[in-house]
Amino acid sequence: MKSLSSFGIVIVIILIGLSAYVIEDLPAFGDANSPANKYIRLFSMQSGAMEDQLEGGVIPIEIKNKIYDFGFNEENLYPTLEEGGYEIEWNEKNGGWDVLIEEGEIYFNEPIKYYCIKILGEELAVYRYNWPVRIIEWTEEETATPNAVTSGLADYRGFDTMGEETVILIGAIAVTMLLRRRGRL
Amino acid sequence: MIEWLMQHVLEKYNFWIAMTIILIGLYAAMAKGNLLKKLIGLSLFQTAMFLWFISLGDVGRDVMVTWGLKGGTPPIIWEKAIEEGYTYVNPLPNVLMLTGIVVSAATTAVALAIVIRIYQKYGTIEEDEIMERELQEEVRYAFS
Amino acid sequence: MTGGSAIPEEGVARRDVIIDTISRLIFPFILLFGFYVTIGTEGTGGGFQGGTILAAGFILYITVFGAKRGREKIPESVNTFFESFGLYLYNGSGLLCIIFSMGAVQFLNYPGIWPVTDLVGVAGSRAWIIAFMVEVGIGLTVMAAFISQYFDLAWKDEEEMVVRKE
User: Which residues of C touch B105 (CB under 8 A)?
Assistant: First the structure.
């Protein structure tokens, strides 16, 4: 055989071995609660008397300090968890308390879901919501388009789409520069 | 061993199917001599990557319980769907990969233009004959 | 005795009646479907999808009737105009919003300058911007780019065309 094809077969076998090593970290197919689709689990703590504080509408200090240790604090430009800046609601479908924080926007300034605190046995587990949850709940009210893919592409992420369209234009110009020899067609 | 197989192979079959097509495309782009066959391998590689990334967003399919054929609906917000208990598919992978598909088509067009120019200059598309002709010209240039 | 009732031109192969008639009948319906898909707010669709459907209609016409007659339908100046106009519409509306909101810089989030806001409200004017400024711009650019690439790849010079006689 030629040298290139044997080299190709060796690289294919190495990549099959690598994929068998990587597959343990991927989420299952069709899971509704995986980190890519809904929320991710940050940590869990022992709950002493924290449930009464949560029903009163105040986040306990230990949970707040541990969230700040993860990096979601004000130095990295995340919204604050100080007193009076958030609200707590009981969510029936997920079975936990939701922490709602206001971002400083010009139009439609309403509180948005950020964290979820659940009770599992004797511990409290803290989850953080992902971005697709926000775009499905707020796309009908902020932009009157029921199509979540178009409103995510053209309104929430409009600057990236502008760059991709420039790439298509430059591709058309490159073909013209390569293939014309004696002036115009 | 059997439990590892059932959990990691039968439940994540989207990864294995997409990985097979990726490896076929990679082998074709590396080991074939004809320039057009390399281009076909590259295009196959890109298409399988899009397939795997978009399949990460599917929601509501229980394979082990019912060999489920009941999945999520497309993400177009509609009041009747919420009443009947459907869940929406994750819209984020579709947003990110939609522009990539059209960019890959434009890139294939530029690559085909380069192959046409190579054919006009050398008269052949096989990689071995092009390398031989380049080596002969180098030898002739070194001895002149 | 298949087809070939039209007079064959110089440089084009002998033509068939069925392919000619059906492609001429179906070409405006492809364009109409492309314009329907390009406005993608109240259902599936979008700019990239609609642009490729529009380009597919024109490529069908060029494949059946030859590159010379296809060039008379879309001359080069019209093609270049559509390429630049689509990008100009999208970037222009974004730049206008950045200039007019000098304090807090917003990209496409400032519906105070468009005159539609008084009639429909803030949410409705955002839907109007998405449907008619962004998606139509993307559709025109993608259509013109694919047509120009197809012309460059499929053109033959005058001395290479073969004249066929029967």
Answer: 52, 146
- Domain B2-56+91-142, CATH among 1.10.3730.10, 3.30.360.10, 1.10.287.3510, 3.40.50.2000: 1.10.287.3510
Q: Nearest CA of chain C to the CA of B116: how many Å? A: 9
pLDDT grade, residue C157 (50/70/90)? low
Task: Kindly state whether B82 is in contact with chain C, defined as any CB-CB distance less than 8 angstroms.
Answer: no
pTM: 0.85
Residue A43 resides in a domain: yes
Which chain C residue has the Cα nearest residue B99?
C48
> What is the reported pLDDT for B108?
95
Contacts of C46 in chain B (CB under 8 A): 98
Residue C163: pLDDT band by 50, 70, 90 thresholds? very low
Q: What are phi and psi of A183, to 5 degrees?
A: 85, -145
Residues (pLDDT < 50) of chain A are 185
Q: Tell me the percentage of chain C whose pLDDT exceeds 90.
A: 51
Q: Is the pLDDT of residue C49 over 60?
A: yes
Residues 6+ apart with CB under 8 A from B41: B24, B25, B26, B27, B28, B29, B30, B32
> What confidence score (pLDDT) does residue B59 get?
81
- On chain A, the residues whose CB falls within 8 A of the CB of B14 are 29
Residue range of the domain that includes A98: 25-142
Does the pLDDT value for residue B41 go beyond 60? yes
**Rg for chain C (alpha carbons), in Å?**
21
* DSSP reduced 3-state for A116: strand
- Mutation site for A-interface testing, chosen from C76, C78, C80, C109 by largest number of A Cβ within 10 Å: C109
Co-location of A133 and A153 in the same domain: no
For A42, A57, A135, the CA distances from A129, given in Å and listed in that order, are 11, 19, 12
Name the residue in chain A with its Cα closest to that of B59. Answer: A30
